[in-house]
Design goal:
This protein is mainly β and about 400 residues long. The chain has one domain: Beta Barrel (Porin), CATH 2.40.160.60. It contains 3 helices and 23 strands. A 14-stranded antiparallel β-barrel has the order 1-4-5-7-8-10-11-14-15-18-19-20-21-23. Strand 18 and strand 19 form a beta hairpin. It is elongated and about 75 Å long. The two termini are about 30 Å apart.
Length: about 400
């Protein structure tokens, strides 16, 4: 689950897994902080401490839209706070070579609610995409310097709720007709894998890969309200079929420990959004808007992200972290949609850990993400054949506090 087009990741990715990692700019490929290594790099999980952790975030978006017309003022969205979460558990001998673990997290999602009557209401009024993934992980340290790991990943729960107005009105009504498409995604399997190399206690390098998964809704429901009787033959569909391609992710990372108190981390991610070229619906039981199918151009491009983080152990019980990242948009110019008003974004992060003795502790994090202004004109939309969306300028910021608890075995 996410606010706007996601926090800390391009498109509708959600990069809020593990409070320690969030506080270090979303790094985690080239080092091991806790059981969340299962997500960032299963190979690094072989060296991670055993235990259990759970955490949650509150994403607080502030989104505005200014229409392309010069005499139009700014529109502010009905911002909705949402709550991504994650939890992990890891088992294995304390000084052993192997680890087994499991996790649950929310890596993709989007939630946006536009005000009634806004300029793009015939493209979108509301969207709510939710996903919950579960993962089982195994990792093994081949030598004290090299470890490998892999995870079986399943889309355990996914749902979609898309709504838009229709430019028709029932007789005597001033409210336009409205369409709502809702459905649940099929269970799908994927995987992630990684390797960590530690040439010394002061340096570690990691590589990881997360496979693509297609989120498929095979029999979603269509609900139409306030539709004129004369138009019902053109809106007779009762269900829909749609597939949303989710990307694969390549990551490389570096961890540096100049001394026992300080840890530095550097990550780079390549997200394979280019597999998402169009959003295609097939309608059953009739037609929607006079057609049995519909297709909307997306033409996403692969996106890069660069992350830097630092951790400093102030005392045996208190640790501070800070980080930053720059995430490039996967949405091309002239292809921005109300569902994903994506843009290049800069993020600043911080977190701390307070340990209550040797086994228990509290993690708290904060992320602020600033999206660059993203504009497109009506001419851009006509040129690209994307007039199913709206011309104008989007501007987004997101604040995300988070908290987590952990227990070491």
């Amino acid at each position: 689950m996410a606010a706007s087009s996601g926090a800390q990741a391009s498109g509708f990715q959600v990069g809020l897994t593990g409070q320690k990692n969030v506080g270090m700019g979303g790094t985690g490929t080239g080092l091991y902080l806790d059981q969340a290594s299962q997500f960032y790099n299963p190979g690094a999980f072989a060296f991670a401490p055993t235990g259990f952790q759970v955490g949650g975030n509150m994403a607080i978006p502030r989104i505005s839209f200014r229409p392309d017309a010069a005499d139009q003022g700014q529109r502010n969205l009905q911002n909705t706070n949402v709550f991504p979460f994650s939890g992990f558990i890891g088992f294995g001998p304390k000084e052993g070579k192997w680890r087994l673990g499991a996790g649950v997290y929310t890596p993709f999602g989007s939630e946006v609610h536009y005000q009634p009557g806004w300029e793009g209401r015939y493209a979108l009024t509301d969207i709510n995409l939710r996903s919950v993934f579960v993962q089982a992980t195994a990792a093994y340290a081949i030598t004290p310097q090299v470890s490998v790991g892999a995870g079986l990943v399943m889309l355990a729960m996914g749902s979609v709720d898309l709504q838009r107005d229709i430019p028709l009105q029932a007789q005597g009504s001033t409210t336009p007709a409205h369409a709502q498409l809702t459905g649940n995604a099929d269970h799908k399997l994927g995987y992630n894998a990684g390797i960590l190399f530690k040439p010394s206690e002061k340096l570690s390098l990691g590589i990881s890969y997360r496979s693509a998964i297609d989120a498929h809704v095979g029999s979603g429901d269509i609900t139409l309200t306030n539709l004129p009787a004369s138009a019902r033959s053109n809106f007779s569909a009762t269900s829909f079929d749609v597939t949303l391609p989710l990307p694969d992710v390549y990551s490389v990372g570096l961890g540096i420990r100049p001394n026992d108190k300080l840890t530095l981390a550097f990550d780079a991610n390549l997200v394979g959004w280019s597999r998402y070229q169009s959003l295609d619906f097939t309608y059953a039981g009739g037609v929607l808007g006079g057609a049995a199918t519909s297709s909307s151009k997306r033409e996403y491009q692969d996106a890069l992200a660069f992350r830097v983080g630092a951790q400093y152990k102030v005392t045996d019980n208190f640790t501070l972290r800070a980080g930053t990242f720059y995430d490039m948009s996967c949405v091309r110019d002239g292809f921005v949609t109300p569902e994903t008003p994506d843009a290049d974004r800069l993020g600043l992060t911080a977190s701390f850990t307070y340990a209550f003795g040797q086994r228990f502790g509290l993690d708290a994090s904060f992320l602020f993400e600033d999206f660059m202004k993203r504009s497109q004109t009506q001419g851009d939309l006509i040129s690209n054949g994307t007039t199913d969306r709206v011309a104008g300028t989007y501007k987004t910021t997101i604040s995300v506090p988070g908290v987590g608890l952990y227990m070491k075995f």
